[in-house]
Design a protein that fits this description.
Blueprint lengths: L17 E6 L2 E6 L3 H6 L3 E2 L4 H23 L36 H10 L2 H13 L3 E7 L2 E10 L4 E7 L8 E6 L14 E3 L5 E3 L8
Antiparallel strand pairs: 1-2, 1-3, 4-5, 4-8, 5-6, 6-7, 8-9
Length: 213
C-alpha cells in the first residue's frame, strides 16, 4: 500500500502510477483517475519549474481581476459611469411630450368609412363590377336616423347598390342596405355624387367638389 489519493481518498494500489501536485505550498499525491480533477482545482505539478509556476500564478491573478470586474457588472451592482460621460437629461427629446398635430389631419368619419369599405367584401365586389360595367358614380353620406353609421351608394346607369358602415363599431362588417335598377329610385341625398370610384375599383372621396360625371 502506498497511501491514498488526495482527491478521491482511494487507497493507492501497489505498482499504480502516481502524480505529485502542489497546492498551497504542500505536495499532494493524486491517482491516475484524478489527474483531471487536480488540474481543474488549479493544482500544479510538483515538478513544474519555478518560473512557469510564477507565470501561472500571474495568470491566475489576472483571471481573478476579470472575475471581480464581471461581478461588479452583475444586476444590482453599482454602475461605474465614466467621468467624461454626461448624465442623461431627464427631460431629453425622448421624454418630452410631443405637441399634437395642428393641421387637422385626423380622418373624418367619411374617410374612415371609405377605408373600411375598400377593404371589405363589398369593396371587392365593386372592384369586380367596375372592371365589367365601367366606372360608376358614388356618394358617401350619413345614414338617416343612425348618426354612427355612414351610407355608401355606388350606381351605374341601370343598377345601384348601397351599403352601411358602422364607424362606432370597428368589428361590425360592412352591411348591405339595398340595391335597385334605376338611379331615379335613389333619394336626393344619395345622388350627391361626392365620391369617385377609380379604375382599380377603389372608392375615394372627392372633397367638397362633386364628381363631374
Amino acid at each position: 500500500m502506498e497511501g491514498s489519493c488526495a482527491i478521491c481518498g482511494r487507497t493507492i494500489l501497489a505498482g499504480e502510477r502516481l502524480h505529485s501536485y502542489r497546492n498551497d505550498g504542500e505536495e499532494r499525491t493524486v491517482c491516475e483517475l484524478c489527474v483531471a480533477r487536480a488540474e481543474g482545482l488549479a493544482w500544479r505539478p510538483a515538478a513544474e519549474p519555478e518560473p512557469e509556476r510564477q507565470a501561472r500564478a500571474h495568470e491566475g491573478r489576472g483571471r481573478l481581476r476579470g472575475l471581480l470586474r464581471r461581478r461588479d457588472r452583475r444586476p444590482g451592482a453599482p454602475a461605474v459611469v465614466p467621468q467624461a460621460a454626461a448624465a442623461p437629461d431627464p427631460a431629453g427629446p425622448s421624454r418630452r411630450a410631443r405637441p399634437l398635430p395642428l393641421d387637422g389631419s385626423a380622418p373624418t368619419p367619411f374617410e374612415r368609412a371609405t377605408v373600411r369599405f375598400n377593404s371589405s367584401e363589398a369593396g371587392h365586389t365593386i372592384a369586380g363590377l367596375t372592371r365589367t360595367l365601367g366606372v360608376p358614380r358614388a356618394s358617401v353620406g350619413a345614414l338617416a336616423g343612425n348618426p354612427g353609421e355612414v351610407r355608401i351608394t355606388v350606381a351605374w346607369e341601370l343598377s345601384w347598390y348601397q351599403w352601411g358602415v358602422d364607424i362606432a363599431d370597428e368589428l361590425r362588417a360592412v352591411f348591405e342596405l339595398g340595391k335597385g335598377g334605376e338611379i331615379d329610385q335613389l333619394d336626393a341625398a344619395a345622388r350627391q355624387w361626392n365620391a369617385v370610384v377609380a379604375e382599380d375599383g377603389r372608392l375615394r372621396l372627392a372633397g367638397n367638389r362633386a364628381a363631374s360625371r
